[in-house]
Amino acid sequence: MSTKNKVQKIDNAGADTKPKQKKVKAKAQADAGYGSGEFSLDWDVDSYRTEYESEEHWDLRRSFMLAHKERFEEDRLVCLAQTFVNMEFMGCKYPSETMHLVAEMSKEIAEDFRRKRDQRLKRTFVSASDAAEQRAKGRRVAAARAADPTKDSSNRFTRERLRFGGGEPIDLFQDLPYGQLILYLSGRECLRNSCNIANMKYEERANQDQPASDTTKYADAFLNEVVIGSGQGENLKVAKYTAFKQALLFLQSHCYSIKLNATRETIKVEKRKDGVNINVIKESADSLGDPKLDASNKGYRMMRLMGWAGGGLGRQKQGREEPVGYLLKSNRNGLGSINTQGNLADYRKLIVNYVKSDDMRDMQFEPTFSKEERAEFHQMASRYGLRSSSYGTGETRRLLITKKVPYSQIIKEVLCRRDSKFCERYFVQVPMKKAHLFPGHVAGLELENICE
After folding, report:
1. SS3 for 446?
2. Which is more confidently placed, 272 or 426?
3. How far apart are alpha carbons 148 and 160 in whole angstroms?
4. Which of 84, 156, 238, 338 has its CA 20 to 30 A from that of 28?
């Protein structure tokens, strides 16, 4: 009897030891980053594809999830897959434990992806002889593409980038409270000018509800008669400027913003005795700024001794801050005459070629051109649908000619097509509702060198 009980006791102990071993094993897997195995496997990986995700990104993320679906819980695996894609494409950094785990899980997948990508890049660069041969076969290639456009990898690649993975084209302005209002950041009047283009009314006026005093004024900024910014200051001008800054920050969170790159490439046209010299520079006339008085100026020092603290003169500081420019006349020509030494026909041809080209860079005419010649350039620019602006004073006066591009086209070229000509020229900030679509364009753009 005692022997029988002893055998039963041993059997029960053996039965108890097996579950304990499973728990230890499960714990070891959990410690290594793997799940316990007690989760469902019937969830659909393809349901996690987003409409804005490119084919390349989705293939990599999908492969990662399929490879580890049986070892991880659904939520954890989806997060790890997104972490892997962020590390691979955007170089994101995470805690060392997470990065080591993802690196271990994605080793084979990442190596296979990189190998295919390198092969694709090698096929992109074609030798000169191959390119000549392709040009000779241009008609047959074009006919084949027209017959079966699905086999055209370049068209497919373009289509995927425009449609974020080959789905329906994305609506960049969907769910935005101010529709297609786009802010072009270029000076104190940027909000007014941008709203005028979008057929909206922007206005800054004194606040009638707040009791103003001799030392404190109040103002509001309105968009279609709705307050979007408020401010106060020692005078009405300062109060309006404060309201403007608040309105700008508010609209930037709800609208797209565009800003010119101050160090963009610019075509510099300079007249010399031996002809016209054309170069490409990394600065533009609109980013140089006009000269202002500083401590090295005698008048500046005299004004400071008399109690001047900076800003415009007048009771409300409404006076100008920059010195009055002057025109240095270096010839005996009468007013309105044209410099006969300059060949306007050649300059007109230069501008016509610029209009016909796909070059997006500015054309900057240096101070070596006379005032009369700049006036002619202004007329030519207007005749050919270009925008012309003058910067600087006196001997530093420059003329900048640029192509007119709709703001909506700039947004599409930078965000959707990623055209290098536009990306090098413009910075774009996306509204908060579109930050998940374009995480590389969420950095805030600021106005610079503006006065109250």
Report:
1. coil
2. 426
3. 17
4. 84
- Cα end-to-end span (Å), the chain: 103
Q: Give the residue with greater pLDDT, 322 vs 21.
A: 322
Lowest mean pLDDT segment, chosen from 24-38, 87-101, 116-130, 297-311: 24-38
Is residue 168 helix, strand or coil? coil
User: Rounded to two decimals, what is the model's pTM?
Assistant: 0.53
Residue type at 404 in one-letter notation: K
Q: Which of 30-34, 261-265, 406-410 has the lowest mean pLDDT?
A: 30-34
Domain with CATH 3.30.1370.50 in the chain: 262-311+341-424
Place of tokens 């997104």: 82
- What DSSP assignment string belongs to 68-118? TTTTS-HHHHHHHHHHHHHHHHH-----HHHHHHHHHHTHHHHHHHHHHHH
- CA dist., res. 80 & res. 340, Å (int): 72
Tell me how far apart the alpha carbons of residues 317 and 237 are, in angstroms, rounded to a whole number.
8
Closest by CA to 256, choosing from 441, 403, 109, 385, is 441
pLDDT > 60? residue 146? no
